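Incident log, structure service

09:12 report received: a user says their structure output differs between two submissions of the same chain.
09:20 pulled the input from the user's history:
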Amino acid sequence: LITGVFKFTQTSIFSGLNNLNDITFDPNAAALVGYTEDEMRHFFAEHLAALAAKNRLSVDEMMAQLQAKYNGYNFGVDIDTKTLFGGVYNSFAINYVFAKQQLLDKWFASGTPTALIKKLAAERLQALTPSQLLVNFRLLEQSCSPDDLSTGLLLYYAGYLTMKGCAGSSLRTMLSLDFPNASVATAFSEALLPEVMNLQNTTVSRLVFELQNALCDQQLDQLQELLNDALANVSYTLLPKGDERPARENMYQIIFTILFTACGVRVTTEEHTNRGRIDMVLEVEDMVYVVELKMDQPAAVAMAQIKEKEYPAKFKHTGKHLYAVGIAVNTETRSVAEVVWEALG
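09:34 re-ran on a clean worker, output below:
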């Protein structure tokens, strides 16, 4: 059995070694390198019960929290049925959580991807754009060397991204990539922000803390100022101006997503509904913020779109408090011109 981060060409290992059985994406091996939910409940039952009791939760409630933070890796794919397999927990993270009986994020800290983060920032975060997070299965499947891989594929092979969806035809199977879980998404965003904003970690942490408080306390009147404090430190080379229409909204959406994710908020972009796609959905404790971005238009236009297309309807049965938020960006000044918001119940 030969393992490693990258799929090197077979002949680069030993001369003539060309009869390997590659199980990298084999559905039968999808749960080989992570814990399934059944394994968690069976083999860690005592640890799970103790952690649930400590947090005053039921075992099922505790499992839901562990799933959000540490699950989500899909390693197998059936290109005929377009089905993903896996849904496994990060074993390193889970071992640490149960050993310490705390919801700690130690996997990321065990090897912060400094070089990858610098490369990602130098490339203007292009690897995180929606078009780059949709890749042809053949690009993942083929043997390679690190020098041949794009930044997005490097992030995948290093474990910071995983497969989240599969679509297309038998001739062109496309995979969507994303962060596997909240633990990785938050930690990666925390590490990326200082590079993007060219600030010390302590300064970035202070801004993130203030933004987190504003969202948790529904103090959205502070949102415009806080977002502008963040944008003021982002290099102008990252922020397209008015004449760069295709890239404008994508880049602001990516930067805001990194910022909100660093706050520990669950962020979903391009959330589909029966009436369209929501730019951003922020889930904070018992609140859901439905966010629409507009470039060089009044924030009222964003708010009108949220209401006209009834975006919040998707979340009305969650039992959470709903808020609509319209954010207007002035691409000439590279700043947030206006934020309007409304509590929906």
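09:41 both user submissions now match this output. Likely a transient worker issue. Closing.
09:42 reviewer note: The two ends are 56 Å apart (CA to CA). The mean pLDDT is 90.
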